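Handout, page 2. Input:
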Amino acid sequence: MTFPCLSREKIISGTRVLLRLDLNVPIKEGKVTDDFRILRSMKTLEFLVSSGARTVIVAHIDDKEGGTLLPVFEYLKKKFKIEFSSFKEAGRKAAGLTPGSFLFIENIRENEGEVENDEAFAKELSMFGSLYINEAFSVSHRPHASIVGVPKFLPSYAGFLFEEEVRVLSEVFNPPRPFLFILGGAKFETKIPLIQKFLKLADHCFVGGALANDFFKVKGFEVGTSRLSEAVIDLSLILSHPKLSIPSDVVVKSDGGKSIKKPEEVKSTDVIFDAGPKTVEDIKKLILQSKFVLWNGPLGNYENGFASGTEALACAVSESKCRSIVGGGDTLAVISKLGILDKFSFVSTGGGAMLDFLADETLPGVIALEKSVG
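Output:
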């Protein structure tokens, strides 16, 4: 896979740059509470400062604290010469940028043409720079204007983090062995192709989280009111695959409180919320037998306080001698809370983008860079 990268370019002082970042970070009471994604983009930001670029930053944020990037701006202004602007005022303010400074535009998704990848809007965005840098790998599975539209109008490059994400995640297609793939979370319909692919690529696949409930159902077990896929999927061939493992015990919640049960012991009044301790021990044994671990998605409903299984798994992977690649929003939240981000070989900033790249071996944002005008 070859695409233009910032690491192989020299930027002349005064060059106008349009930079796409992913700054969709946790915010509480007007302050950034987890700066992992910001820090991972810092190398590109510092490179642009030292090169004397005049950079316009575009990014998005979900509907947190009113859907504004102002708290992220407050964070960045402690480190850089940077100004904040609405999209409407950005053209005028960008004209006044000096070498090594930034203009940070408010939530790009407030503009109708962004999500629709409107060509006129992409062209309007491209007017902010004479070249474009994509440093937003984690949203590059989205065919939005600031990801796939702009490269049609500007010479385009991958930022340092984007380049690293693609290079490291590509290791998965020819990894050291034995190779263990661990997949958790939900959204079964979108992850079936990934499971099928890695049952061929990996030496062992463990599927947990809400995804496992569908397997329990196929085995004829009661799952109570636990989360299930909405689609009807034939899992019989996957379930019988010799490389597949699913939880051997689960944490359930019912009127009587929390309890640990074997899957076949779950009652109609139970809700499965987490993997049990035996399951964690089973995975630990697989980790000890492996040289390479790829993990995406929690083992339990982390957002509702069922984090024990995921935290135990995080510790087991981080303490192993395996090369380890991990990703996913909830997975990242757990390992960040535990303070062990630096204990893994690589932590991807991508959730959906990571999964799509693993499934398709490319992304819309990667293809856009490959095809960009030059």
